[in-house]
Amino acid sequence: MKRGEDPYRTTPPPWQGWPSAETSRRRWRIGLLVPLVGAAGCGLLFLLGMGALALLLIAGRVSVPLPDGEPLAMSTAEITGTWVDEQGGRVLFEEDGRFTSNEVCGDFDDHDDDHFDDVASPAPGTGTWEHTTDGDIGSDASVSTVRLTFAPDGTSAQYEARGTSRDPVLWTYIGDPDSGKLCVLERARTSD
Question: Do 78 and 130 belong to one domain?
Answer without folding.
Answer: yes
